[in-house]
Design goal:
Layout: H1 3-19, H2 39-55, E1 63-67, H3 73-80, E2 84-89, H4 92-101, E3 107-110, E4 122-128, H5 136-146, E5 147-158, H6 172-182, E6 185-192, H7 194-197, H8 199-226, H9 228-243, H10 251-258, E7 259-268
Parallel strand pairs: 1-2, 1-4, 2-3, 4-5
Antiparallel strand pairs: 5-7, 6-7
Helix pairs in contact: 1-2, 2-8, 8-9
Length: about 270
């Protein structure tokens, strides 16, 4: 299991235990950061994110392909609203979590969107924090095959094409130009929700510095007293990362500097 998968698993487990949904996406905070920065507040914001996403599924939709379905929490909520879902995700571990919570009628594919192959097409292709993983040209080509009516994207784009050379994540302007040039879809709505997502990082940084950091520091001291040899080995391997847990972060500011978070609905021409 990769570190990213481990963190997704941990976050989903915590939100499932606290609020019962197991979402692994960011939160939606239309009124800004809450007075009490807590995991419970994050759970409520993640539910608000799902509610907003579900509200933007166009009227008349019956079938949805959830691309990058992850832990399956969004797919479960959509099936409970009466939609017919298929899911795909390249992570077998996350797919095992999804299969454990989804009805048997929901097929989960162990693949990327680029390699996905099916005789079916879907009323809506949905991307909730998964579109930025896919090379744009390949995403549009696959959407032309599988999106009968609409594409719904809730994800972030780079602000500056030169800000991040690695990976396939493009800018919002590049996305708009590519959609127009491709010609199969038109953008119906395109909302900038960056400010409403940023409190997620404020809450996560607070939980890290005020709760996880002090707990980890205490655990390190206890381990050093009880198992000095193991403690020295752990410190040799992880001390730099552990030392950062109780330091104030700037994740919200850095995210706002680098990314736009958009809610985009497209329809087939």
């Amino acid at each position: 299991m990769s570190m990213k998968e481990l963190l997704l698993d941990l976050e989903a487990t915590l939100t499932e235990a606290v609020c019962g949904h197991g979402y692994a996406h960011y939160g939606y905070w239309p009124d800004g950061a809450p007075e009490v920065l807590s995991l419970h507040a994050l759970c409520a914001a993640q539910q608000a994110y799902f509610d907003l996403l579900a509200a933007h599924v166009p009227h008349g939709t019956r079938t949805i392909l959830d691309v990058g379905s992850g832990t399956g929490a969004n797919a479960l909520g959509l099936t409970q609203l009466g939609f017919e879902l298929e899911c795909l995700c390249p992570s077998e571990h996350l797919n095992s979590l999804a299969r454990g919570k989804l009805p048997a009628s929901v097929q989960v594919h162990d693949c990327t969107f680029e390699s996905f192959g099916s005789d079916r097409s879907f009323d809506v292709c949905l991307f909730a924090e998964s579109f930025h993983y896919i090379v744009l040209a390949e995403a549009l080509a696959q959407l032309a095959r599988y999106a009968k009516k609409h594409v719904l994207i809730f994800d972030y784009f780079r602000r500056d094409a030169e800000a991040e050379k690695s990976g396939t994540r493009g800018t919002h302007a590049e996305f708009q130009r590519a959609v127009e040039a491709h010609g199969v879809f038109e953008i119906v709505s395109d909302e900038d929700l960056t400010q409403a997502v940023l409190p997620t990082f404020v809450v996560l940084d607070h939980l890290r510095t005020e709760h996880l950091g002090p707990f980890t520091a205490s655990a390190r001291m206890t381990l050093a007293r009880a198992y000095p040899l193991r403690s020295r080995l752990m410190e040799l391997m992880f001390s730099r990362k552990l030392d950062r847990l109780d330091r104030p972060g700037r994740r919200a500011e850095r995210f706002a500097e680098k990314f736009d978070y958009r809610l985009i609905l497209m329809r087939r021409r």
